[in-house]
Amino acid sequence: MKSRALTPWLLxxxxxxxxxxxxxxxxxxxxxxxxxxxxxxxxIKDGFTVAHYVRVLTDDYYLTIFWRTLRLAAxxxxxxxxxxxxxxxxxxxxxxxxxxxxxxxxIGPLLxxxxxxxxxxxxxxxxxxxxxxxxRALGLDPVRLLYTETAIVIALVHVMLPFMVIPVWTAxxxxxxxxxxAAWSLGASRFTALRRVVLPQVSLGxxxxxxxxxxxxxxxxxxxxLLGGRRLKMAATLVYDEYMSELNWxxxxxxxxxxxAANLVIMLGYNRLVxxxxxxxxx
Amino acid sequence: xxxxxxVALIFHSLVVAFVLAPLVVxxxxxFTPENTLSIPTTSFSLRWFEAIFRHPDFxxxxxxxxxxxxxxxxxxxxxxxxxxLAIDRYQFPGRDALNGLFLSPLIIPHLVLGVAFLRxxxxxxxxxxxxxxxxxxxxxxxxxxxxxxxxxxxxxxxSAEQAAMTLGASHMTVFRRITAPMILPGITGxxxxxxxxxxxxxxxSIFVTSPQTVTLPVRMYxxxxxxxxxxxxxxxxLMIALTAGAMLVIDRAFGxxxxxxxxx
Lengths: 283, 264
Known about the structure:
The structure holds two protein chains of two kinds. Chain A is mainly alpha-helical. Chain A has helices at 2-34, 51-58, 60-92, 98-107, 114-125, 130-137, 149-173, 177-185, 190-218, 222-227, 235-244, 249-282; strands at residues 36-39, 43-48. In chain A, 77% of the residues lie in helices and 4% in strands. In chain A, helix 1 (2-34) crosses helix 12 (249-282), helix 3 packs parallel to helix 7 and helix 3 runs antiparallel to helix 9 (190-218). Chain A starts with a helix and ends with a helix.
């Protein structure tokens, strides 16, 4: 009996040790670090200060970057909903083999390194890129896209789209197509059927997709790094610069902790929302 | 089956074009004979692919990433399978908390993990160590492995195990001869997903790699921020080709949608 009670502990202990040592401990150390004093000539010093948080949350330079991060992440999320949800719907109505082929085309790029995809967009959007070559060939004025917020959003939408298509697709799989057909035969227009029958079913998928997209966009690194240039920073590139160029680790740690806290608030808020909805659905 | 209307199909074609555009462009530019990023029109050349192999940094980084991903995925399986077994089969205090802990890297931005690892490594003097780099990747890929392995534990029919027990097989024999083969697809799928995620990881790795342990994505990122020439396109094209190959294998063996979208 005693050995049986021990078995699960033995089974989980290696993974638990690793996760305690390499997730919990480093995060605690980072929180502590963010309260350390930093001196430009001597580096990190012991001593407690909230100065980094105060600075990050009051200085215009940081606030501009936070605001940009939130704005671009929100915009990316919105566009992903507008493109991803209809696309998942179109996919779900395709017949085989097209359905599986295009599902692969849409979600397959998830597996391609984000550096490759960012680089692809920088070639498309650059001043001598394909887009501008086409514009010039058509006799139009070239546009400056690379190193603008537009470029960041375009590439973020490209990277995040699968994260929206997947949950909506999963929700649509659970929807019986006969229900939509029933709505039509009862006289509902296509639009009404879509709005009253399909949309409520997939709204949870859209919501969960939105949260993933928002969270990942707000902490995206490679896209703003390669398509925003040095000037247009977002939260992740800001942290990287604080660590690697400014060498102000405590300040960088403070920003990272703020990013983490914001992320956790959003995720927990989402869980709440899903639970209340599920409870309401169950009566 | 309701057919899609013309509007839906035009919309769909635009989305597909948008999704494929950067990948196609990268692959075309990789074959340019020019020194600038341009799409070859008259002649094709492999000179930029050759340039990769002459470049002193890309080949070591590639092998480094290959090793890293192989080790991280394998260690992750070795940790996740027993952990998933315990969480699926046993009731014990802290079970839900542990499950949450093992999945937590999914909701912690990689940026934050990178910063946290960097702090730990600076304190314990592990900066630049390949072994520690592997462990950080184990953390990042384990949630994916856990989810797939858990799904195969919950989804399996346990009557075969019970029959073997009744017939006198020991716990070890049952696991080796019955349970392991039944969860093998989950394990293989998890390993592949872990491998790909580790191989492509950039945001966390860029904080914890040192000049000796630079991974391929980090190398590519650094290279792309400094200079833009067609060699970057050639490396990217190779990555796309490798990924596409891996995708085809996964898709044939398990169905890519099952692994990426999750069990239904």
